[in-house]
Amino acid sequence: TKKDDSFGPAINLQYLYRVAPKWKIGASLTYQRTSTTLKAADKAGDYHDVAKATNDYFTVMPVVKAMWIEKNHIGLYSKAAAGICIAHNDAKMVGGAKENKPGEVTDEIKSDKGTRFGYQISAIGFEAGSKNFRGFVELGYGFQGFAQLGATIKF
User: Fold this and answer.
1) pTM for this structure?
2) Separation between Cα atoms, residue 52 and residue 35, nearest integer Å
3) What share of the chain is helix, strand, coil (3-state, %, to 5)?
4) How many helices (H) and strands (E) would you count in the chain?
5) Mind listing the pLDDT tens digit for each residue in 3-35?
6) How many CB atoms lie within 10 A of CB 28?
7) How many Å is the Cα radius of gyration of the chain?
8) In 71-146, at which residue ranges do the beta strands (DSSP E only) sit?
9) Which residues touch 149 (CB under 8 Å, ≥6 apart)?
């Protein structure tokens, strides 16, 4: 067998409030969809789909952002967040294959609904633009991804 995984982008909406000159706190909502297809070879060596899973992840986290440099048109920062991830994973057999047992399609693909710990540590972020609208790029690790690219709007 072989497994093909695909990952959609993590879509993130975040609100931050300045509590001190270099510190912001707020909340983040992140959504991501992934999918997995399990393939098995027939006697001729051709691979066919036997199981598919769609995974939806909704993550809610409080956020702390430290601004290391903040000038008129640029900013350099780090960010940390921790919270809860709500997962909804739906797995099913395809092509006439049978489940091992109810809810467990294979040892590699299982239906799952539940919560787990969610986090994001962004060691470095850079933003540039005007006072009220900036683009940003961020490098980190966690439920929002390894690299983020986006825009911020100041109200």
Assistant:
1) 0.81
2) 7
3) 0, 75, 25
4) 0, 8
5) 888 988 999 999 999 999 999 999 999 999 999
6) 21
7) 20
8) 74-93, 112-129, 133-142
9) 135, 136, 137, 138
